[in-house]
Amino acid sequence: MTDPLHFHELYAASDDPWQLAERAYERRKFNLTVASLPFARYASAFEPGCSTGVLTQLLAVRCDAVLASDPAAPLDQARLRVPDEHVRFERGGVPQQWPDETFDLIVLSELLYYLDESHRHEVLRRCMETLLPNGHLVLVHWRHPFEVAACTGDEAHAEVSAHSDLHVMVSHVEDDFRLEVLARGHR
């Protein structure tokens, strides 16, 4: 698992270390993510690793309630970006601080490769415990290896896709990122 100090140092050096709000690549990736959602509306979404709330802001338009969490990001900045009453931001990292709620949408964006294999399996177990029948699990990850990653995005997606209770509804693969929407339940 990537040392949490790594993320604290990144955010100490910059309010937006990945330039999520500025880079055209990030805007396009986030817009594709939301456009890929099969339902027009979701009752309750969970977005761990929300960072500065850029994707959270887009999810809020499609969801009645959103819980977004991050162990290191400046959540005050995220709250300013998304001041909606139906969006909650909480400090915490997964899988340790997983909410005691159920969701019809869980979004794991740029998260899984920071976790070691046992934590990735624990996150999947928690997803399956809290994802409602016919709910959607969204995976979006960078495809290239990098220094602090425990695996590639492709490897993380393959681990999740191998789960027998999930089937791929949407698959979008580019040179730099992979986006998949998996459904729980019947095809």
What report would you give on this structure?
This protein is α/β, with parallel strands linked by helices and 187 residues long. It has one domain (4-184): Vaccinia Virus protein VP39 (Rossmann fold, 3-Layer(aba) Sandwich). It has six helices and seven strands; from the N terminus they run H-H-E-H-E-H-E-E-H-E-H-E-E. The protein has helices at 4-13, 24-35, 54-60, 75-81, 117-130, 153-161; strands at 42-48, 63-70, 87-91, 103-109, 131-142, 166-173, 177-184. The protein has a seven-stranded mixed β-sheet, sandwiched between helices. Helix 4 links the parallel strand 2 and strand 3 (87-91). It is globular. It starts with a helix and ends with a strand. 37% of the residues are buried. The mean pLDDT is 92.
Q: So how many helices?
A: 6
CATH topology: Rossmann fold
Query: What would the principal axes of the Cα set say about the shape?
Result: globular
Q: Please describe the biggest sheet, giving its number of strands, its sense, and whether it closes into a barrel.
A: 7 strands, mixed
